[in-house]
Amino acid sequence: DVQVQQPLAVLGRDVEVPLVNGEKVTYAALDYAASAPALQRVWDDVAAYAPYYGSVHRGAGYLSQLSTDLFEQSRAAVADFLDLREDDQVVFTRATTDSLNLLAAALPSGTRVFAFETEHHASLLPWPGRGLEVAYLRAPRSVSEAVAALDAALSTAGEGPKLVCVTGASNVTGEIWPVAELAAVAHGRGARIVLDAAQLAPHHRVSVRELDVDWVAFSGHKLYAPFGAGVLAGRADWLDAAEPYLAGGGASRTVARQIDGSVAVEWHQGPARHEAGSPNVIGAYAIASACRALTEAGFDALQAREQQLIERLRAGLAEVPEVRVLTLFGEDHPRVGVLSFVVQGWNSSHFAAALSAEYGIGVRDGLFCAHPLVRTLLGGEEAAPSECGAPEPSLPGERSLNAIRVSFGAGTPDEHVDRFLAAV
Ligand code: PMP
């Protein structure tokens, strides 16, 4: 039973980092979109539980039973957080990438998958190569274009199972996607839809019922919990009908040796089917703690604060004529606390390195694991290939082949944004 005064206080706010000039400054973490700092509250909850954890499921001892209860309560907390339907289920995974690969592996054979090419690689790449038919839709330049493009693609897709995969908020531009509209189109055309909420869930309430999506995926480490756990939540039927994502103990109900020497397996129904092996109980518990903290603090308050920071950032960047903010739907489109830009005459990797070395500011540079999107935004299919986030081998003064991303959330002080703007 941990009481924390500020429900959304984050860790790591007092880290001192050395600058090239020998001074030290407090680190300004402006890379929440990659991984957000953990909430103090999450850390306290985990610390309070850590001395008592035991293996979950079938342990006869008291601590095993306690852990089993807490693990299942964590599932329930996530279900509340996402406002799931009664029959939906919560599967604990390693992160969003894992969740979407799980879903891809569970799709009925022959499912036709539709995704915009603007997706993060985690929602772009799990589908091909599994006997699924995949259609990538070109980057839309407005909400109405996105809705119309999906409708047109689905209208000729024929019968059979169909899945639409859409992001809630872009990890590059921060722009919020019209999820409810796309879900209505998908369902109107007999398709199901999965929401990649990796960037949306830390900033906005995600109600599965209100958005009317079939599945949601998100990562603990972007939701103010530590690394190693994520969630796939939603409809049970396809997940229960699929082969287990991992084969092993925990997923299997009974295993019997056959006369011919093989084994016959009966797999569990429900989340356990896809959670073989000893689950990451601490990770699940941490996610549940973050879900409760965010709900208690209220997304209205979080968003109001974030909007202040976004306005401050945008106004500041607007004063620098060399800065071009990257946007798909227009600069005034609603966004979360994520913004990418390029600076004329600067290589983005050098720019980001200078922000770190000279100002103690941590941002990200590269193509942000969304190569097709960033190339579209930079205005050239010809942009050089790059590893996720790897520096481009060009010199200052050359045209940008990658971008700089600044992102923030709970606990970000004005001072971090101001220092960043002064540096820019
Ligand atoms: N989707 C989006 C929109 C993301 O931003 C990310 C992480 N950058 C992912 C999916 C993948 O998340 P993870 O690395 O935690 O699996």
TrEMBL record:
<dbReference type="Pfam" id="PF00266">
    <property type="entry name" value="Aminotran_5"/>
</dbReference>
<dbReference type="GO" id="GO:0016829">
    <property type="term" value="F:lyase activity"/>
</dbReference>
<dbReference type="InterPro" id="IPR015422">
    <property type="entry name" value="PyrdxlP-dep_Trfase_small"/>
</dbReference>
<protein>
    <submittedName>
        <fullName>Selenocysteine lyase/Cysteine desulfurase</fullName>
    </submittedName>
</protein>
<keyword id="KW-0456">Lyase</keyword>
<feature type="domain" description="Aminotransferase class V">
    <location>
        <begin position="30"/>
        <end position="420"/>
    </location>
</feature>
<dbReference type="InterPro" id="IPR015421">
    <property type="entry name" value="PyrdxlP-dep_Trfase_major"/>
</dbReference>
<dbReference type="InterPro" id="IPR000192">
    <property type="entry name" value="Aminotrans_V_dom"/>
</dbReference>
<dbReference type="InterPro" id="IPR015424">
    <property type="entry name" value="PyrdxlP-dep_Trfase"/>
</dbReference>
<keyword id="KW-0663">Pyridoxal phosphate</keyword>
